[in-house]
Design goal:
The structure holds two protein chains of two kinds.
Chain A lengths: L4 H10 L6 H18 L34 H5 L5 E2 L2 E2 L7
Antiparallel strand pairs in A: 1-2
Chain B lengths: L21 H9 L10 H9 L5 H19 L2 E4 L1 H16 L10 E5 L26 H8 L3 E6 L33 H8 L5 E6 L5 H7 L2 E4 L19 E6 L2 H11 L29 E5 L9 H16 L3 E5 L7 H16 L18 H12 L2 H14 L5 H21 L5 E5 L15 H5 L6 H5 L4 E8 L5 E8 L4 H15 L9
Parallel strand pairs in B: 2-3, 2-4, 7-8, 7-9
Antiparallel strand pairs in B: 1-3, 4-6, 5-6, 5-10, 9-11, 10-11
Helix pairs in contact in B: 3-4, 6-7, 8-16, 10-12, 10-13
Classes of the chains: A mainly alpha, B alpha/beta.
Amino acid sequence: MSITREDVEHVARLARLRFQEDEMERMTKELGSILEYMEQLREVDTTGVEPTTHAIELFNVFREDEVRPSMDVEEVLANAPGRKGDTFRVPKIIE
Amino acid sequence: MPLEEKETPSECRRSSSEGPALSEWMRAAEARLMELWELTIWQARELLQKGELTSEELTRALLERISNVEPKIHAFITICGKEALEQAREADRLLREGKRSPLLGIPIALKDVLCTKGTPTTCGSRILENFVPPFDATVVRKLREQGAVFLGKTNMDEFAMGSSTEHSAFGPTRNPWDLERIPGGSSGGSAAAVAAHECLGALGSDTGGSIRQPASCCGIVGLKPTYGRVSRFGLVAFASSLDQIGPMTKDVRDCAILLEAISGHDTKDSTSIPVPVPPYESCLEADLRGMRVGYLESSEAEGLDPEVKEAVKRSLEIMEGMGMELIPVRLPHMAYALPSYYLVAPAEASSNLARYDGVKYGLRCGEEEGLMEMYLCTRSLGFGPEVKRRIMLGTYALSAGYYEAYYRKACQIRTLLVRDFKEAFGKCEVIVSPTSPTTAFKLGEKLHDPIEMYLSDYFTIPVNMAGLPAISIPCGFDSRGLPIGVQIIGDLLQEERILQVAYALERTLDLEKGSPPL
């Protein structure tokens, strides 16, 4: 399964990344050789093997839904790249 | 997999104050024949508690050491001199009042992936260059409460993605043993800082080897705990099912002290394991005769350096000489761990790093041109090449049409790896391997060949995939004088066991390490 330039452009759009012409070429080449390396996984017969997403057993953790103190608004907004009053300022989303 | 702690057959003894050659170093330290920055954590603790040294004195000595060697090493992104001295004076006050805690007044360093309230946390990335966390990571809070002194934040590969620390947006760190070489990565700053005596110990994080491989390259001790042993709250996420925080220290005793201090369940991390923390330090000495030590029958990793192979073989012979029984074990799917890791970890990373969108914190650019342009500009400018490569790889592996062939397949192989280890641990208590196939390589040597770089984590990655604990300790030097590390892997929650084996091996090896020539 080789990766094409069109695939890379598509994935870049999904990942919200932009590449210059030369970067795009390099990325296609690099991803191609990495994916080629991954091809060896096909040698392994995984018929009927359950996938593992965590090596240890995970449990849901519940607590009462109660009002508790939360972070101060000033602290929350201290790192905001754009701020308007007590909110994060962002570009217009709906035309 | 059951999470109960196994019985440790050894007897735990409370450690007495006389460690190895205590009087010797104590005299040397008192007579100032030894530099204060050369002390280990446990040595400094003795002097602080006896009132023969103040934390302020010690912290000043380390800050001076930092300013002397940093121009060569560049282990730190942020140095917190003023805050460190304030913390040291507070620790001295508490010590005078008779308060005792293993880390009270001990100056350490933190990898810049750990959130520190009020101190910048960059993750080695431009995108977080000006980020100042409004909270402490749980491990940072724990260390703060125990009175540790924070000297600063150490350099790392951007978002912990790399094995050389060359992928830091703030320039590479150099190996104290040879300034032309890499310190390993991604916790290369922490490893170099410990090796160059710029701190008494440090914390790192390990997703595929990022504590153990740099520890090996820099000739120090590094431990990756069982997944869930240490809270990940406040650790900037790379691959959430693999990441763990762990200690990086000058010796095994220090490693036990620091691990004990950061371990334990945390309500803020639902994957942290709710079992009690053993007293790691006081359990270090154990009778290991008759213990079954597994070694990999076919450890023919691509590019395994013969000198590394020889040094690890020597360690195994020493262990046998100490009365341990060597058992050959097989991990049939080990060779597939690396390719499956490079699907699982980037897949998780691509999802975790979606949060860097220029909205709530971090870099923002292009907002004048609308929302999509803001995303594209912020992320393309903020992330470096390796991070972009992994986001692309992960996005591809998760995208429609490829999910089954790549991501799901990798997760199935992960199951087979977990089974391999389970079977191996039916035959032995620990498994010994090289930490990394080679010693430290030259800066730039593998920078443009991603797969070559990835191969330096050949022996460490399977351990993360199975969630197991493992420690790397120095076991010799190659003909160029570069440190070699040996890895000791334990079963789930068997940190105690691997520390005991490492402690015994360290004492018997008794390497004439000296200090890096700086």
